[in-house]
Design a protein that fits this description.
The chain contains 24 helices and 22 strands. By secondary structure, the protein is an alpha/beta fold. It folds into four domains: about 80 residues, no CATH class; about 80 residues, Type II secretion system, protein E, N-terminal domain (GMP Synthetase, Chain A, domain 3, 2-Layer Sandwich), CATH 3.30.300.160; about 130 residues, Beta-Lactamase (2-Layer Sandwich), CATH 3.30.450.90; about 290 residues, P-loop containing nucleotide triphosphate hydrolases (Rossmann fold). It is globular and about 85 Å long. This is protein-secreting ATPase. It catalyses: ATP + H2O + cellular proteinSide 1 = ADP + phosphate + cellular proteinSide 2.
Length: about 600
């Protein structure tokens, strides 16, 4: 049986519109509250986040609540509670197990109908009415359709759409031939941008190996994996997912299936299935679990057979803005100060997979306007940015970062983004562009912000050019966020507190003043969160990631050190004298704000502090 909170009856909430007006401090007499107003009152939604969501809704359409969740402005559960208040509807707090959902109800509702409308009948109540989980309280016609299909009166119960879809997969998988069915209906082929998506259920000759590969894709998206690794062994094929930066085993198959698995992936990626001696690269576009997914496929021969790695990119995910990527207000202010300049270079540094591209996109989104001509050269183009011309690197035709950047200078750009500075040629062109009135964004692979200066000098760039062009260096790392369903507060040892770079006396007294950061959670002074593990986070203890940052402003002193070819340590010390917040310092602040754990911060900043 589903448990749910009864509706909260207010004199001004029945039939209120879902949104579209600017928030006000209190409703006018007799006027119903809008969804955004309820969320500001009950869930701490900030007015600027509401304004941004309303602007996006006006531009792109969609439901305000879903837009707020995608922007990470509020939790999905908070939106459901607010909709319950607004529309006088019950809200599900606990869902039934798949085994307890009435099979007779499910048999009468097609799975495609259930998934399209995100609805699911779950039981017949004492009044002989059918309880139906719904994500949109305005889906009155859908409830009427379900009533006709079932031949009974129905009652809608609000539930987050992600939880409804998850339960649909489990219920239909159990009742109609196992989990394969739900997975098959959630992996669709896309044959070009302008053609219809083809549901693979329509492919009646589908082989078991196709279903097996579809299952891999489905579960990878469901578990928020960024990469799939298909690894051959002597007797088995092992599949691992990378989730929140950590590899975990998903399943194994007998060695005899390896050729069929590899062949299927190659066919999907348009690769040569006969070529097994050389590495190959390809791309796949699929709709998986209702999301448009781009996949980069790479194969490589090993002693045990061909190995495949698939990088997953969700094209339907919402691009985050600067306030949404985990920057504290002090760091955010420095970054904004830099990117408002008319010329110069901002370099984002960090290892592969540290979120550098996301930060660059957030910066571009911040300054994007009709008055600016913004050009990018990337490998690959991960998100399509409206109003920005984006070019994909293609080594086969000699379209490199350097050649793309050189051609951009003939297109009257104001802002240029180069995916990565890998060599002297690219660095020289980027510096030339910045010194001739353009602003340039790019990335380099260094451990900290100061190391980017010495890296450019080591590439052969003259120190005076580096000193003249550079305006800021931003280092970053990703840390996992504790699962808020199971994380518990614990008292750390003084040694651990010192290792984080904190003063134990101030830490345990709770006297540190912390700049605000989006998503922070209240933690008792003198406590930190410890990851435990529960079904919600697949017993890992973490769910999602945030970033820690180190923003080095290029002051006159640092310019002089650059001209003197000072080492990274000297430049870093100068930055510390001028108030630099290091990666570990920012991580320690986020530990105190409940955004990560001490173990995560120490792990990702060990190199920088050692």
């Amino acid at each position: 049986m589903a448990e749910y909170d009864p509706p909260v009856t207010l004199p001004y909430n029945v039939g209120a519109p879902v949104g579209g007006a600017a928030p006000v401090a209190a409703p006018a007499s007799g006027r119903p509250l809008l969804l955004g107003e309820i969320l500001m009152r009950d869930a701490g939604l900030r007015p600027e986040h509401l304004e941004r969501a309303l602007a996006r809704q006006q531009d792109e359409g969609g439901l305000l609540g879903e837009i707020l969740v995608r922007l990470q402005a509020v939790e999905e559960a908070a939106v459901m509670r607010a909709l319950g208040v607004q529309h006088d509807m019950p809200v599900a707090t606990e869902l039934p197990d798949a085994e307890s959902v009435d099979a007779e109800l499910i048999d009468k509702i097609p799975i495609n109908f259930a998934k399209t409308h995100r609805v699911l009948p779950i039981r017949i109540d004492a009044d002989e009415n059918v309880e139906v989980l719904v994500s949109d309280p305005l889906e009155v016609e859908v409830l009427d359709d379900i009533s006709v299909l079932l031949g009974r009166a129905v009652e809608g119960v609000l539930c987050p759409p992600s939880r409804i879809v998850d339960l649909i997969n489990k219920v239909y998988g159990r009742l109609r031939g196992g989990a394969e069915l739900a997975e098959k209906q959630d992996v669709e082929d896309e044959y070009g941008d302008d053609e219809e998506l083809v549901d693979i259920l329509d492919l009646t000759d589908e082989a078991p190996i196709i279903r097996w590969v579809n299952s891999l894709l489905f579960h990878a998206i469901k578990e928020r994996a960024s990469d799939i690794h298909i690894e051959p062994g002597e007797k088995e094929v092992m599949v691992r997912y990378r989730v929140d930066g950590v590899l975990r085993e998903h399943k194994r198959a007998h060695r005899q299936y390896l050729p069929s698995i590899i062949a299927r992936v190659k066919i999907m990626a348009g690769l040569n299935i006969a070529e097994k001696r050389l590495p190959q690269d390809g791309r796949i576009r699929r709709r998986v679990a209702g999301k448009d997914i781009d996949m980069r496929v790479a194969t490589v021969p090993t002693a045990a057979g061909e190995r495949v790695t698939i990088r997953l990119l969700d094209r339907t995910s919402v691009l985050l803005g600067l306030p949404d990527i985990g920057m504290a207000t002090d760091t955010l202010g420095l970054v904004r100060q830099i990117i408002e300049r008319p010329h110069g270079i901002l370099l984002v540094t960090g290892p592969t997979g540290s979120g550098k591209t996301t930060t660059l996109y957030a910066c571009l989104s911040e300054i994007n306007s009709p008055e600016l001509n913004i050009l990018t050269v990337e490998d690959p183009v991960e998100y399509q940015l409206e109003g920005i011309s984006q070019t994909q690197v293609n080594a086969k035709i000699d379209l490199t970062f350097a050649s793309g950047l050189r051609s951009f200078l003939r297109h009257d750009p104001d802002v240029i983004m180069v995916g990565e500075i890998r060599d002297r040629e690219t660095a020289e062109i980027a510096i030339t562009a910045s010194l001739t009135g353009h602003f340039v964004f790019s990335t380099v692979h260094t451990n900290d912000a100061a190391g980017a200066i010495t890296r450019l000098v080591d590439m052969g760039i003259e120190p005076f050019l580096v000193a003249s062009s550079m305006v800021g260096l931003l280092a970053q790392r990703l840390v996992r966020r504790p699962c808020f369903e199971c994380a518990t507060e614990v008292t750390p040892s003084e040694e651990l507190v010192r290792e984080l770079g904190l003063d134990p006396e101030r830490f345990f007294a709770g006297t540190y003043e912390l700049p605000a950061v989006k998503g922070q959670r209240p933690v008792t002074p003198g406590k930190v969160l410890e990851a435990r593990g529960c079904p919600s986070c697949l017993n890992v203890g973490y769910s999602g990631r945030t970033a820690v940052y180190e923003m080095l402003m290029i002051s006159e002193r640092i310019r002089q050190l650059t001209l003197q070819k000072a080492d990274a340590g000297s430049i870093r010390n100068a930055g510390l004298d001028e108030g630099l917040v290091t990666l570990r310092m920012d991580g320690a602040r986020k530990v105190m704000q409940g955004l990560t754990t001490p173990e995560e911060v120490l792990m990702v900043t060990a190199e920088d502090e050692g």
